[in-house]
């Protein structure tokens, strides 16, 4: 599941840099990060 790892990394980076609502960009990934 390399794609999942990459997606997590990208979401983390984008979240830290832009700090936009990840829930709006990717609700499913948001759940994964919180879990």
Any overview of this molecule?
- With 35 residues, the protein is mainly alpha-helical.
- It has one domain (2-30).
- It contains three helices and no strands.
- The protein is flat.
Question: Quick summary of this structure?
Answer:
This protein is mainly alpha-helical.
How is the main sheet built? none
Average pLDDT confidence is 69
What is the radius of gyration? 9 Å
Shape: flat
Distance between the termini: 17 Å
Strand content: under 5%
H/E element order = HHH
- What is the number of domains? 1
Count of helical regions: 3
Sheet/helix structural class: mainly alpha
Count of beta strands: 0
Unreliable stretches (pLDDT < 50, length at least 5) are none
Descriptors:
mainly alpha, 35 residues
Please render the helix and strand layout as text.
Layout: H1 2-17, H2 22-25, H3 27-34
């Amino acid at each position: 599941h390399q794609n999942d790892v990459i997606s997590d990394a990208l979401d983390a980076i984008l979240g830290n840099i832009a700090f936009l609502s990840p829930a709006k960009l990717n609700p499913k990934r948001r759940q994964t990060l919180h879990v």
